[in-house]
Amino acid sequence: MALTDLTPALRRETLAPGRRGALRRIAGLAAAGSVGPLLAACSRGDEAAAAKGPAAPAVIGKAGDKVSFKYPDNPTFDLVYLADQLGYFEGTNTRPSYIGKVAAPQIIPLTGTGEIDFGSRMVPLVISAVASGADLKVVAAGNKTLQDAPHMKYFVRKDSGIRGAKDLEGKTVGINSFGACAEFVTKTFLRQKGVDVSKINFVVIPDDQAEQTLATGNTDLAIIHAPFSGRADHAEKLTRLWSDFDLDGGLGGMQPYSVHGKFLRQHPENVRDVVTALAKAANWVNQNPEEARKLVSKRINLQLDYVDRYAYVDNLVVTEPPIQYYIDVLEAEGKLAKGKVAARDIYTNEFNPFAQASRA
């Protein structure tokens, strides 16, 4: 069953109390690999509307109106949950409304159609969505890759015989989704090393299952994101080959926050509330990495020693180089027509008070 077959039904359920159940079912199908192309969630109606350009602003809520934004309730290291725990939404009229678990590959498609209001996934997914007519915009930079806080790590079994890039030809590599950092950062690096990537079998494995899938021999290399990558670092049978910092110096490691265009137009002050809360939480994590790990450990029920930390872009101010990096990669991969999307089309810092203050 393709996602395009499910979208009309999902939209109908959005108008009824069963919307949350619909999202859970579509997330389950995505996790099982039953959905079609990543961006098929955009309906023809959405694409037609997007093709006409930005819609006129909707009626904006009055100051003081209470507004909830729909957001996935996923077991991961995420600033929305931390901002909520730390009380950064207090004193605002904005609150998250958690709608249940949503499979990673569906977060940007569902943000693009408004089934969820905000989503955090990698830049190439957002670029591809915008190029396909989805109505969304990056409003806050997310995490960044550092040498001691990489976005993702690459593991093999100690007895695999895999020691370098060329050894991966003919092997199976587990990634958390297609169209994102794990696929494109890896392929770019491997091609630079002279590897024929067509000889590698890429399969989708959720991050929290990737270590076990590798250990049991169902994959030959696992690319695992924080916080779950820390558990693989402690696995007796596994060894780490690289991190994404080793591959590109961290340029491909930004995972921003995007908002559905309609929500942005209807609730600009609430978008500002969200971005402000996320930026405060990001700065808190950078200043208190161990305390942040403890909060995440409790949230995802993972032993503290196994929880890898995240580092975040200061004040979550978006810059163009990480976006241009993926535009160039997508064009090189033949996934994006040259010149179709410019970096400035993807993001805005308009709702980030820290960015505005820095320009003052």
TrEMBL record:
This is ABC-type nitrate/sulfonate/bicarbonate transport system substrate-binding protein. Keywords: Signal. It is found in: Periplasm. PANTHER family: ALIPHATIC SULFONATES-BINDING PROTEIN-RELATED, TAURINE-BINDING PERIPLASMIC PROTEIN. Its main location: periplasm. Residues 74-292 form the SsuA/THI5-like domain. Belongs to the bacterial solute-binding protein SsuA/TauA family. InterPro entries: SsuA/THI5 (IPR015168), TAT_signal (IPR006311). GO terms for cellular component: periplasmic space.
